[in-house]
Protein 1
Amino acid sequence: MIEIKIKSQEKNYPIVIENEAITDLREKVFANLESYLVVISAKVEKLYGKQLNIPKNRKFVLKDGEKEKNFTNYRKILEQALKLKLTRKSTIVAIGGGVVGDLAGFCASTYMRGIDFIQVPTTLLACVDSSVGGKTAIDTSFGKNLIGTFYQPKAVYINPRFLKTLDERQFKTGLGEVIKYSFIEKSCMCDEELNLTNFLSTEDIHDEKVLAKLIEICIKLKKSVVEKDEKESGLRRILNFGHTYGHAIEKITNYKKFTHGEAVVEGMRFAFELALKKNLIDKNYKFLADDIMKKFDFRQIPKYKIEKMIELMLMDKKSDGKTITFILPTDYSTVEAFDLVL
Ligand code: GLY
C-alpha cells in the first residue's frame, strides 16, 4: 500500500494506492460513512456493480461521455441527495473517470455548502490527474469546465485493478497525461528525483505493480505543483502543457473525434515545434520528445488550418483575447509559460 498525503489550505487528504480485491475497496470506502450517495460510471457499474454491492437507491449511474457533465445531471444528483435526506455529515462518493469525479465533486462542494467527497478513480487519466488537486466542474454550451469550484476530497482511493478493463484507447488517453508529466518533471519542483522519462522507456507499463508505481510518480509530481499553487495563479499553469492547442483540437472536432489525451499529445507536438522555431530548445530534444510520443503510437491527428486554431485558442478561458498563453519546453523536462501573439 502506498499513501501520499496532500496538503491544501482547505484540508489535507490521503491518496491511497493499493492493488486489492474490489470487495476490499468497498470496505475501505463505505465502512465508516454515516450516509452517502455514490455517483458511478455506467461502465464501472456494469463491470463491478456486483462486487461493489451498493444499494440501488444510494447510487446515481452516470452514462459515459463528456456530454454527461452537465447541468441536468448536476440537478438530478442533488435531487437524489435531497430525497435521501443527506445531511452535512453525509458523503458523496465518485467511482469512475474524470467526468464522474468532476461532476460528483461539484455536487459535493455545493450540497449544503459542501459535504465530504471521496474519489475512487477508475481510469488512468483520473488516477494520475483529475482526481488530484481539487478541481471540480460541469460543462455548458459556452465551453468546458466554465462552472466549478476548487474543492478537495476527503480521500482518494486508487486501485490499479480497475485499469485492467480499460480499453487500449482509454488507457492511452491517460498515457497522454503521463507523458506530459515526463516533459514537465523538473518544473514541478518535486523534492524527490523521480525520472519519469527513464521509467517510461524501461518499464512494462501494463504490469499491475509497474502501473501502481507509475501512478505514484505522477501523483507525487502533481502534489508538488498543487501544494505550491492550489488555485492556479502561477506554477499550476504548467499542468496545461499541451492543453492550449489540445483544447482547440477538441473544440474543432466537437469533442467527438479524438480523446482528451490524444488531443493533448498533439498539443505537446505543437508546443515542441513552436519552441524549436523560437529557439527555446535544440533539435535533439525535439527528436527525443517525438520518439517518446511515437513509442506509444497515439492516433494521428490531422493539421487543421492554423488561422482557425488560433481563433479557437484566443477564445479559451485562459486567454485574454489578444495573446495566447502557451506552456513551452525550454530544456529537458522543463517548461515555462509564454504569452504569445501568433
Ligand atoms: N488538470 C490540470 C490541473 O489539475 O490543474
Protein 2
Amino acid sequence: MIIDGKKIALELREKLKKKIMELKSFSNSVPALTVILVGEDPASKIYVKNKEKFSKEIGINSEVIKYPANVGEKVVLDKIKELNKNKKISGILVQLPLPKHIDKRKVIETILPSKDVDGFHPINVGNLSSGYESNIPCTPLGCYLLLKKAEKNLSGKHAVVIGRSNLNGKPMTQLLLKENCTVTVTHSKTKDLKKECNRADIIIAAVGSPKLVKGDWVKKGVIVIDVGINKTDSGIVGDVDFDEVSKVAKAITPVPGGVGPMTIACLLNNTIECFKRANS
Ligand code: GUN
C-alpha cells in the first residue's frame, strides 16, 4: 500500500474548508494566519507562498510579512508582540531558518503559546510531552495522520524514529508514546541503525540522508513514513530507498507526495484550532 499524502491532504483541506464555513456562520469571523518571512532563502519562499495559497483556498485570512535578511531582531520581536495583542490574528508563524543575528529561541518564545501554530513554544512542547492538549508541530502531526490511515491501532507497536530534531523527531516520539507505541529514538550517534530498523513495526525517517533506509534494513510488513526531502542528481528522494523498501513494507509514503502535502494541511488545521480555542 502506498500512502497517498496528496489525496489525504486534499481530503483534510476539504474538511477544514467546511469547518471554516460553519465557524463563519456562527461567529461571523474566520481564522487568520500571519506568516513572517525574513530574508530570501529560496526554499522558505516557496513554503511560505504555498502556506498563503492553501490558507486562502480554504477561507483562512492569510497575510505574509516580509523583512530583508538584515532586519533587526527587535523589529521582528516587536511585530510578534503586536500580532500577539491583535484579537483578529489566530495564528503566528515565523518561517525558519532565520538569519544568524536573530535569536531563534527568543523569536519562538515571544509568540503567544495560544497563537503558536507551529507548536514550537516550550509551553506547547511541555504540554505535548505531558499528554495535555497543545498545538502539535505540523510535520509530525502530518506523519501521525498518515500513519493512522495505514494502521488504526498502534498500541504496543515498536516504532523507530530516525532523527531527534525539535521539528520532528522529538514531537513525533511524544505522539507515538501517546498511542502506546514502544519508541526507539535513533540519531547520528546510534551504533547500529540497521539493527534498530530491523526490529521496527513502524519507521519514521527524518534525517535528510538520501535513500538511507534500504530493503534489507526492514522487516516484512513494516509501515514506513518518510519525511526526507533530498535533492539529488536524479531528482527529489526521501530518506528511504522507496524501490527497495516498498517491496517489503505493508505501507509506505512516497517522496514527493507523502508527508510534504500533509504538513501545510496540518498548519491550516492548527490555525483553525487556535481560532476555536480563542473564541470558545
Ligand atoms: N521551516 C521548515 N519547516 C518549518 C516549519 O514547520 N515551521 C517553520 N516555522 N519553519 C519551518
